[in-house]
Amino acid sequence: MEMHETQIVAQHVEPVGDTEKEILDSLLQGTGVTVNGFNDWDPRFYSAEVVNRVLAKGNLGLGEAYMDRLWDVPKLDEFFYRLLKGGVDTRIKPVKLFWHATRFKLLNLETVKKAKRIGEFHYDLGNSFYQAMLDKYMAYSCGYWKDADSLEQAQEAKLDLICQKIGLERGMRVLDIGCGWGSFMRYAAEKYGVECVGLTVSSEQVKLGRELCKGLPVEFRLKDYRKETEKFDRIVSVGMCEHVGRKNYRTYMKQASCCLKEDGLFLLHTIGKRIRSSVPDPFIAKYIFPVGQVPALEWLTQAAEGLFVLEDLHNFGADYDKTLMAWNERFEAAWPQFKDELGDRFYRMWRYYLLSCAGAFRARDLQLWQIVFSKKGASGGYCSCR
Edge-to-edge strand order for the sheet containing 232-238? Predict the structure, then answer.
C-alpha cells in the first residue's frame, strides 16, 4: 500500500474547471469528500474527463477512469463509504446506461446457457489466484466475525454457523447449490460426518475442489442447478443466489423444494439490497460478475410462497466489510506473483471491485442475509443458532 500512496503523490493533479467543480460540489455535498483534497478519502483527479465519464456512465465510468489511471485515492474503501453514506449514488442519473437498466428488467440474462459465462469469466480466472486471496477452505463468501480475529476464524465460524442452523447430523445427505471449491462440503463432511453433493458451472472449481476434498464423502457435479433431480436431507446455497437473476427466483425455489425431503431445511446465504428498484451495478456487471443481480428480500419471499416457510432471517452484512478488506490485504500481498500475467489494468480493476464493495457494506448499502426455510414449518418451531 505504501508504494501505491507514493505513486499518488508523485502524479500531477489536474485542476478542475469551474463547471466541473460546480457539478462535483453539488454531488459531494454532505459527504466530507473533496476532489484534490488532503484527506485519505479525497480523490486526486489527473484529468477533468473523469467528471464527464461519471455523468455518462455512473460507477462504470468512474471505475473505468480508475483503471485508466485518470484518478486515484489513498483509501478507496473509505471514499466509497462516504459517497454511499451521503447518498451520492441517488443524485447521479447516468445518460448512457438506459439499456443496462432495461435489459435486466425485461430479459432473462441467467438462462442455463448464459450461466456458464459466470464460471468461464470469473471463477475460471485461475485457482492459484483465488488460493492466494482466500482462506484455507477457499470460502468465497462473507465470513462471520462475531468472535473472530482472522479471516480463517471468520470463515470457519460462518461454515459452522450454517451447519448448526440446519441441524446437521451424521449420515445426512446434503446438497450444496453453487458449491464453489467445496468449502462448506469439506467442512461439513470433516466436522459433522455428512455426505455432500455440490453443483457448480466452473470446471476449475471442480478440478481443485475434488483435490481439496479427496478422501471425503463429497461429490462435485459440473451441472446447472436446474438439472438436479436427487432428493436430500438438507440443502445450502452460499453466494449462489446473486447469479440466479430475478426472473429465475421462482424456478430456483421450486428446484430447491423438489430436491429437499419433506422434513428438511434449506439455508440460503446471499448478498441483498435494501432498495428494490435499484439496478445491478454496471461496473460489477461488466467486469466482475456478468449478468449478476443482487436480490431484494421481497423477491425472495415472493418466490418462496407456497413452497417454503421462512423460519429464520439473519443479517450480518457489516461482516462483509471485514471480509473484503481481508481479501484485499491478501490480494495486495500476493500481487507480485500475478503481476506479469494479469497486468496493471487488472490490478486496478480488482482492487476497485474489492474496496468499493467494502465501502458499500460499510455504509450498509448492501446486506448479507442467511435465510432458513422449511417446507411446511418446523415441528414445534425452529430454534435459531447465533
Answer: 218-222, 195-200, 173-177, 232-238, 260-273, 366-374, 309-315
Is position 385 annotated as part of the catalytic site?
A: no
> Three-state secondary structure along 25-82?
HHHCCCCCCCCCCCCCCCCEECCCHHHHHHHHHCHHHHHHHHHCCCEECCCHHHHHHH
Amino acid at site 31: T
Cα–Cα dist 318/216, whole Å = 33
The pLDDT tens digits for 32-65 are 999 989 999 999 999 888 988 888 888 999 999 9
Which amino acid would we find at residue 160? D
| Residues paired with 324 in a beta bridge | none
Rg value, the chain, Cα: 21
Q: How far apart are CA 141 and CA 158, in angstroms?
A: 9
Cell of 322: 471485514
Scanning 91-198, the segments in alpha helix (DSSP H) are: 98-106, 112-121, 127-133, 151-165, 183-192
Give CA–CA dist 204/201, Å, rounded.
9
Q: Containing H/E element for 344?
A: helix 339-362
The rounded distance, in Å, linking the Cα atoms of 94 and 86 is: 18
Name the active-site residue from 213, 241, 357, 383: 357
| Torsion sign, CA atoms 306, 198, 183, 330 | negative
β-strand 173-177 against 366-374: which pairing, if any? unpaired
pTM of the model: 0.90
Q: Whose grid coordinates read 428488467?
A: 105
Q: Long-range contacts made by residues 276-279, C-beta under 8 angstroms, separation at least 24?
A: 279/100, 279/101, 279/104, 279/105
CA dist 256 and 230 (Å) reads: 10
Q: Tell me the pLDDT band of 315, cut-offs 50, 70 and 90.
A: very high
